[in-house]
Amino acid sequence: MTEKKPDKKRPLRERFQKAARKAVIVPLAAASLLAGLPARADAPQTAPLSYTQQLFLQNEADALQKAPEGSTPQQQATYYMKELCLTPEGLRLAANDDKSGETPARRAEEKQVADALDTLKKLPMTGKPLMDLVARRKIDFCALDKLPGGVAAQYLASSRLVVSGPVGKGENRVLQLAHELTHAAQDENGLLSYSLDWTIEMRVERNTAVEAAAMTMEFLTAYDAKLAGDDGYWKDMQRSAPGLPYGDAKMYSLIDDTYKAGVAAGKTQQESLREAGAAAWKEIFQSADWRRFYLDVELMNYLRDIDNGSFAPPLGPKSAGYTQAALDAAGQIGSGESFTKGAAIYSLQSMLQGEQKMAWAFQAADIARYAQQLGADDPSVLSYREKAKADGNPYLGLDMKKMYVLASDASWRKSHADGRPTYVYEVLDAALAAQNPAAQNPAVLPAAGGASMRAANGRPAPPAAG
Ligand SMILES: [Zn+2]
What we know:
mainly alpha, globular, 3% strand, disordered N terminus, disordered C terminus, binds zinc ion, 4-stranded mixed sheet
């Protein structure tokens, strides 16, 4: 935002706004991410820009009209948000209007999103209840040029927006939107927030449960389309990234077999699809690339809270933490039974198996959290640190607030050829290498494997690292 805003007035999209945009934009102070905002909302007026604000400012060049002269960055972000986000009907009008001043590329993207939403409306068991939700919750859509590395689309909870970037190779808008709207359904059920008294384990359990449910809905949506006579999505998914759940042949046979067995046993299509979803949700956790991606997202959220000083006492009332009831509701779409009902929670510890650097990064962040909460000299913090030293954790000397700033910056850059984000532990490794250039630490090499959530088959991703 170093540039002066030109005083060029273009016709605003007032006709779309009147026709289609919801009247009230939720104040930005309340905006949060899919990853959730802590329950406490006592941020000072001088608070740093929220992720949502950063996101819209990153897309500034995109706006039809620059924000009014003298706007604060917060006001600019609100302005761009209003300019760039439309209802499904508004998107269609904007895409069809060649006199609005929008670029052809933007209109093409708007058309793509509007078409995808129309497709969803026609899928009775999956897309239709999601589109009912769009109308009920007045959810707007924003086709943006720029999202953080690794993120293909996102649901921004408190502002009830779905943002999506340009569609990459192997990506599909319909399934992307089904994913993000599943998060909107979870939002309606109160599943996207967390409380600051939660442990990192609870936070990871929550985030991976809702993400696995959203990805499950991609599969179910493609299968629903197949049942309705269009198997294109189902086939396309199978050509997607190996290593991610899309490339797991077992996902497809599991869903198909479970659904068919249900129908053969006399169950309804809806109930049979629910059972297929329950099986798929569990299988998603078997993907190491998927786990790594979402573990890193939650670690970033944790560091953000540390950087904000959110764990400084008092922390507010104790909450129940992440509960079975919350997990039960994660796959609740429409009026049918949830496909996560009765599922078992996957623990952080089990997901960190074989991920030594990631585990150390979590441990170092956790110590920083408790040092903030209890004091660095608290006996329990000291013994935690001793234990981490004994584990050989190399990250204990790093300032986690500084690391958050570096990791956050890195998330806006595509630093890997496959488009995936830079993981937090890579940032920590780079910081260690910078402290000790003599050491021949091949620190910043990406992890092995590494299909990205975006490049090979991007699709939806979460927020905050997204
Ligand atoms: Zn997601």
